Amino acid sequence: MKLVCVGDNVADFYPEEGILYPGGSTYNVAVLARRYGARTAYLGTFGNDIAGQYLLEVMKEEGVDCSHASILEGKNAIARIANKGGESQVLNVDKGVYRDFSLSEEDLEFIKGFECLHTTVYSYTEKYLPFFKENGLAVSFDFSFMSAREYLAGILPYVDIAFFSAVGLEGDIKEFMKEVSNSGPEQVIVTMGKEGVLTYYGQEFYYHPAREVEVVHTLGAGDAFIAMYLTALGQGYSIEEILEKATDKAAECCTMPGTFGRGITTQGDGSPVP
Q1: Distance from C-alpha of 218 to C-alpha of 230, rounded to nearest angstrom
Q2: What pLDDT shows up at residue 78?
Q3: What is the pLDDT of residues 80-108, one digit of tens each?
Q4: Pairing of strands 197-201, 161-165
Q5: How far is CA 209 from the centre of its chain?
Q6: In CA terms, which of 31, 53, 171, 199 is 20 to 30 Å from 147?
Q7: CA distances for 8 relative to 34, 78, 164, 262, angstroms
């Protein structure tokens, strides 16, 4: 499967641990899907500081095509995170140079060569969605906690696979998933943490329980789920098999520091030690 991930990256800084991990929803999916067997590329903006250089270096080492990633002068996006008994809580985020993210004509031409495109609510890619759809890409979109009807109305017609976190939802989840599906997406997935995951596809619901593990960090588990879901989908597995594989990868992610086990020691301000 050829998967292109377009959007955010962020340096995840844990002040209490003095460790910085590569992160960002789209970034994580690109790296993890590559590990899981997909051919992946990433388009996003890195700062030219040490953090940005480190994130780009890691992504290249992981085998992701970064030929169309851009580097801008300034600080990379950074999130300060607290680890509360295994639960990762984002304290604040500085988007840095990512505020200036855009795609060039060359980038858009490059994107046409892929089967599936993944992006997120954090990625500033909304204006490009009609282009992605018109050029035959299967569009995967991580809405995370976003469920505002006005926002969804402008996005869903261009989305084929929609991911949501139950944390941001109110009312009957199944009715919400049906409404979303009626607006465009063929598959609607809601992750529910310890309560498992629910998929709506072909007018049927599919449920899979979460796997119990000894949690180290929870940040990135949803990205691991999405990465495996898209990879397994491209490999032709059934929905039941996809959910089992994706749930296992999300659980595995919770057992390691950072989303995929890579991090470096930082200075007091969160910048990596040279």
Answers
A1: 20
A2: 94
A3: 988 776 677 888 999 999 988 999 999 99
A4: unpaired
A5: 21
A6: 31
A7: 17, 11, 17, 18
Cβ-count burial of 134 within 10 angstroms (0-12 exposed, 13-18 middle, 19+ buried)? Answer: exposed
19-23 and 78-84 strand pairing: unpaired
pLDDT of residue 173: 96
Helix (H, G, I), strand (E, B) or coil at 204: strand
Which amino acid is present at 249? K
- Per-residue pLDDT tens for 251-267? 999 888 888 878 888 76
Give the whole-angstrom CA distance, residue 112 versus residue 217. 36
Reference 59, options 72, 74, 44; nearest CA is 44
**What are the sequence ranges of the domains in the chain?**
2-265
Structure tokens at 63: 């085998």
Q: Please identify, in words, the CATH class of the domain defined by 2-265.
A: alpha beta
The phi-psi region of residue 265 (left if phi > 0; otherwise alpha if psi is between -120 and 50; otherwise beta) is beta
Helix axes 221-234, 25-36, angle to 10 degrees: 50
| Cβ-count burial 84-118 (b if 16+ within 10 Å, e if not) | eeeebeeeebebbbbeebebeeebeebbeebebbb
| pLDDT < 50 stretches in the chain | 274
Which among 116, 111, 115, 163 is positioned nearest to 139, based on CA atoms? Answer: 116
Nearest-angstrom CA–CA distance, 90 and 109: 35
**Under a CB-based contact definition with an 8 Å cutoff, are residues 245 and 251 in contact?**
no
What pLDDT does 268 receive?
Answer: 60
From CA 14, how far away is CA 131, in angstroms rounded?
37
Query: Do 221 and 206 form a contact (C-beta atoms < 8 A)?
Result: no
